[in-house]
Structures are given as C-alpha cells and as structure tokens.
Amino acid sequence: MIPGEIDDPPSPIPTMAETQKQDNQYVVQDDGVDGHERENASEYADLKYQRGFGNHFTTEALKDALPEGQNSPLNCPYGLYAEQISGTAFTVPRKYNQKSWLYRIKPSVTHEPFSPREPPHSRLMSDFTDASNSFVTPTQLRWKPEDIPNGKTDFLDGLFTICGAGSPFLRHGFAVHMYAANSSMENSALANADGDFLIVPQQGRLWIKTECGKLEVSPGEVVVLPHGFRFSVALPDGPSRGYVVEVFSGHFQLPDLGPIGANGLADPRDFLSPVAWFEEKEIPGYTIIHKFGGTLFESKQDFSPFNVVAWQGNYAPYKYDLRKFCPFNTVLFDHADPSINTVLTVPSERPGVAVVDLVVFPPRWLVAEHTFRPPYFHRNCMSEFMGLICGAYEGKAEGFLPGGASLHNCMSPHGVDTPTYEKAISEEPRPAKIEGDTLAFMFESSLIPRVTARALESPKRDLNYYKGWIGLRSHFDRNNIPQTVRKP
Ligand SMILES: O=C(O)Cc1cc(O)ccc1O
Ligand SMILES: [Fe+2]
C-alpha cells in the first residue's frame, strides 16, 4: 500500500484483471426516471482516499506503475505515457508550486480538433469584464431554491451563473454558479481551463471521476476540481442541486491561524484526494468539453480519458467534510467576525485580502454575555454570497431556505431580519447551541461581483427580501438613560 492512503477495509492494490472487472460494472437501470444510465453503486463503495492538504502524493493502481527515480523515463512501466499537469507557473516559489505527473494509457492530447460546443451554454458566464449581459447593483438580493429541471439535465447543462468579477483572460476574479440537475454526464468529461471549481452539493451526492481517481461527494462536503483536470459527474441520487465557486486567480489555501495557534478550523488531515484508478475503455464518440475563456469547446476521442494508472504530485482534486470543521468563537462578549470560520482562501496579492474565502457557519455554542449574539448589522468592503446546505441560518428566521442564496454586495447594508432581532434582544443570554444539522456558508470576495441578467430576472428571486428589514422598528427612548451616564 502507498503510505498515506486510507484503506478501509484493507485491500491490496487491484490487479489489472480486478480493475477491468470493476470497469465492467456499469448497468442500465430502467428506474422510470428518463431511463437514464446509472452507475453501479459497488463502483463507489469503499472508495479509498489519500489524506492531507497539498501533500505530495504517490499512488498507483498497478504495482510499480510509478517510475522510480525520475519523472520522465524513456520507457515508462507498463508502456504508459508520462504527462505533467502544471497548476502554477513553473517558476513560482517552491512553497506555491503545484504540479503532478500522470502515467496514462494514452496522453490527453489524443483527440480530434476542438470546436465551439453547439448550442452554446447560454446560462454559464465567466468574463465579467464584458458588461453586456451582467449588471452591477447594490440591492440586497436573495433567491429561493431552484427547481430541479423536468427534462434530462446533467451537471454541466444544469449550471447557471449568478454573479462574478474579473475574467479568466486576466487570470483574476471569480464566478458564482449554481446547478440543478437530474442525470449523469454520459460519455463526456469537462475540463475547466479557466480556473478551479469548488463545488458545494446541497441535494444529492456527486460521483466524480477524475484523472486522479474517483470521489464521492455528499451534501455537507465540498470538492475542489483544480484548473485543467478532466472530470465527469454522475448523480447517483438523481435530482441534485448545489453551488459552485470558480476562481480565475489561483488556488485555494488553508488560512493562516495567527494567534489561534497550530490547531483548529479545518485540519489538513481531513482533506481527501483520490487514489489512482483507471478504466481501459474504448468509447467511440467520447466527448471532451473544454471550458476556455468562458466558452465551451468540444472534441471527440474514442477512449475514456480516465486512463491514468499512476500519478504523483501535489496538484490533484480533493474533498473536505464541512462537519469536520473545528469552530472557534468568542467566549466572553461580542460577536466574532465571520473570518473566524474560514475553511479555505484564495489570497490576492494584497496581504490578508482574499479573492475568495470559503466560510462556514456550522452548529456551535454561543456563550457571549451581554452581547447581541446573531450576526451584527454591517456594511462590508467585501462582497458576501451566501448559501444554505441544510437547517436554518442563525441570521435569518424567514425566507433563507436550503438551496437558496443571497448576495450582499460591497458596502450594501445587511444584518438579521426583524424576527431574529426581536427574539435575540428579548432572550436571556444563557449558553445556547445552534442545534441540529445546520450548515450555511459564504463565498466572500474583495472584488465587486456583477450579477447576471438571468439571476436578476429569475422567478426564484425574492423581491420581498427588503421587507425583513423594513419591519425593524425604532427602540429609541430618550428617557432610557444608560446606567453609566445617569446622574447620582
Ligand atoms: O452577513 C452574514 O450573515 C454573514 C456574517 C456572519 C457573521 O456572523 C458576521 C458577519 C457577517 O457578514
Ligand atoms: Fe454579512
């Protein structure tokens, strides 16, 4: 076994025959849901992962498939092709450098020429420097959950863009997308040449084949599919919905912990990358979809792109279970800024300023004394996109539903709604737990996102959102003089 692999239950590296047996475990189930193809659950049972954030992994699906002592030997073991994927410029400082070497049956270049995908994906947007189909608005925005489509829709076709800033052409910025889908990607894989995808499933598991191996991602977990890797998403539970943040500016890092110390928040060991897995499959008409400069291109090849028998390096997909997050908080008074809940960050060139932070609001104890405990009223120079995976968000008693979303853009005032405020100020502040299975999250950015026409015009947009604050009444009483300033 390769050191660092999680192996539960223990099993040896599969032989070629065993691997091919696994590859044949595709079945077509007529389940009445469009009759779409579903993959056999056993293919995703007992998946193994390698632990650690940014580790230099080594993994092989066939014994000794990784070349020893060099990356690019004249003849690779098993007659494999060696191929490097670089996630950072060759010359970035070593501590930021990300690359992996893949050893594969055929190289990724073996395909017909690219042509723009027809019809174009009209709901997906990446270039926010083109102001023709997106708008800037300071209005506080909220959306109800998107309906799962009736017609057959896979992960890629189910994506729609909410907002974003910058452009992949500038290699700077981000986009927030959501998806609502009901079927698996069939004989097709997507590679995003524009940036990293971080996916937050809200309903339905994702079975993701990548060139580095397979991942199962359930609601409550997030997955990062880095720039350039090919992947294909199957939906074992059918109807699926979730959020995606796409980053054009670099990669996610763990935040520094500062005075918190060496432990806490997201623990590096809880990040899981796949182990090498491959399928040696001829598939006539297999489609590679390449997202590049915001446009989808496609090309055909006649074999599965998931043909990497072994790989080594620190550039690979990974997943993380948000329920493993170890939250820190105030233990005496006042409300901590939400940055205390940062899971991952994509830093900008300015110290402490993120292109995107992923922030989570998990169940936790609230113990602050003489303190307004819910999120404070505020205006933020950063923009805040929020989603709810399950449960209820502590800042909103009404209208923010699992699968829904909100956007509070740079300096747009916001805070708790009226019922949350009234309840908080009338309650005895005993230690209390935000109970149950609740998970809200935020994509926070220093950039000013433009909002797509589709998101602004969506029937799911909650045009009454502002009313939750209009109801805030004045509690001002000139005669209610604080103890400290009362005359003796
Ligand atoms: O606006 C929000 O709900 C997110 C948020 C939460 C919090 O606890 C403090 C500040 C903040 O922006
Ligand atoms: Fe906020």
UniProtKB/TrEMBL annotation:
Keyword Metal-binding: yes
Organism field: Riccia fluitans
Family: Belongs to the homogentisate dioxygenase family.
Domain Homogentisate 1,2-dioxygenase N-terminal: residue ranges: 48-322
Sequence ranges assigned to domain Homogentisate 1,2-dioxygenase C-terminal in this UniProt record: 323-476
Pathways involved: Amino-acid degradation; L-phenylalanine degradation; acetoacetate and fumarate from L-phenylalanine: step 4/6
UniProt protein name: homogentisate 1,2-dioxygenase
Any one GO MF annotation of this record: metal ion binding
Biological process (GO), any one: L-tyrosine catabolic process
Catalytic residues (positions): 335
Protein residues bound to Fe cation: 378, 384, 414
EC number: 1.13.11.5
UniProtKB keywords: Dioxygenase, Iron, Metal-binding, Oxidoreductase, Phenylalanine catabolism, Tyrosine catabolism
Cofactor annotation: Fe cation
Binding site residues for homogentisate: 393, 414
